[in-house]
Design a protein that fits this description.
Helix 5 runs parallel beside helix 7. A five-stranded mixed sheet has the order 8-5-11-9-10. It has a four-stranded mixed sheet with strand order 3-2-1-4, covered by helices on one side. A two-stranded antiparallel ribbon has the order 6-7. A hairpin with a 3-residue loop joins strand 1 and strand 2. The model has no long low-confidence stretch (mean pLDDT 87). The protein folds into two domains: 142 residues, 2-Layer Sandwich (Signal recognition particle alu RNA binding heterodimer, srp9/1), CATH 3.30.720; 155 residues, 60s Ribosomal Protein L30, Chain: A, CATH 3.30.1330. The protein is α+β, with helices and mostly antiparallel strands. The chain starts with a helix and ends with a strand. The chain contains nine helices and eleven strands. Bound molecules: zinc ion. The site of zinc ion has 6 residues, from strand 5 and helix 5.
């Protein structure tokens, strides 16, 4: 049971308790009236003058006194009335004159009920506000839950280039006299993207899933790796939000081939083309990549949990 339904249950029982107290108070108030006399102020003064009052208790409240007591005549007959605060001193004087024992007391110990009843709307209002707050919080959490958590992964790959091998980047064969050396087709872009996806999903790297010692993957089309990675993500209820990659190659120019590469990658990953972003760089003639001896790629993948 979550905290929201706990609050609802609590409020339900609280409302029932207040309703019960209210009803009980109404019934017992009627009973009180039926049991005792309710003389007017002048009737009461007449009784005092006649010496018919046995004992009196004054209950203090902010603007008036609740006067309760018992008659001497008729015996065992109770009464209660409310007198204005200003009238109380005179009344007390008259009662003392007649030798009637007077007790003045603060709020009755049993008066927590009216206090509670008076406070009930406030308590219910506070309860309702708390309930609303809880609702809003749980709705917020649900909305966040729908958005899911985001996770990112990084991938990197490099392959040496050799004369006479097909140059395959992003699943597309480019017209060039050199190509990557590798167990599979040596597609650096596909490999980097695959590693980024596996990394974001916490599923290791491409080597653990497609070991280059396995003859099954010899000369394999690397888009198959992406298709397999996509299946692994689905099993973990992860969706591809975005893939961004950069390929570093001295020659040839990659830009013109990007639309086809994005299409091939998006198709393998089962996502719209807009979710695949590609960039190209040269290595400014520096190092192996700059001398045209290698091709490298970096990729970042963002996943959301469903
Ligand atoms: Zn590779």
């Amino acid at each position: 049971m979550n905290s929201s339904s706990n609050t609802k249950t609590l409020l339900f029982w609280l409302s029932l308790v207040f309703l019960g107290i209210l009803l009980w108070k109404l019934v017992s108030a009627n009973g009180d009236r039926a049991r005792g006399d309710e003389p007017s102020y002048s009737e009461f003064i007449a009784k005092v003058d006649a010496g018919d009052i046995k004992e009196v208790v004054f209950y203090l409240s902010p603007n008036s006194y609740e006067v309760q007591g018992e008659y001497a005549r008729p015996a065992n007959r109770k009464f209660h009335l409310t007198v204005p605060k200003e009238a109380a001193p005179t009344l007390m004087g008259q009662l003392r004159e007649k030798g009637v024992p007077i007790k003045v007391t603060g709020i009755r110990s049993g008066d927590w009920v009216p206090i509670l009843l008076n406070a009930a709307p406030l308590i219910l209002l506070v309860g309702f506000c708390l309930f609303l707050m809880r609702q809003m919080q749980s709705r917020g959490r649900a909305a966040l839950g729908r958005l899911g958590t985001t996770r990112s992964g990084i991938g990197y790959d490099l392959h040496r280039l050799e004369e006479g091998r097909p140059l395959i980047v992003g699943g597309i064969e480019l017209p060039f006299h050199k190509g990557p050396v590798g167990h599979s087709d040596g597609d650096v872009l596909a490999h980097a993207v695959c590693d980024a996806l596996l990394g974001a999903a916490g599923l290791g790297d491409i080597g653990t899933h497609f070991p280059d010692s396995d003859p099954k993957w010899k000369g394999a089309n690397s888009l198959l790796f992406l298709e397999h990675a996509k299946k692994l993500l689905e099993e973990k209820k992860l969706a591809i939000e975005h893939v961004d990659a950069v390929v570093i190659l001295e020659k040839p120019k990659l830009g013109p081939h990007f639309p086809k590469m994005r299409e091939a990658l998006a198709k393998s990953l089962g996502v719209p083309v807009e979710k695949i972003h590609l960039k190209a760089k040269t290595n400014e003639g520096v190092d192996a990549v700059g001398r045209g001896e290698a091709i490298a790629a970096h990729a970042v993948a963002t996943l959301v949990s469903r």
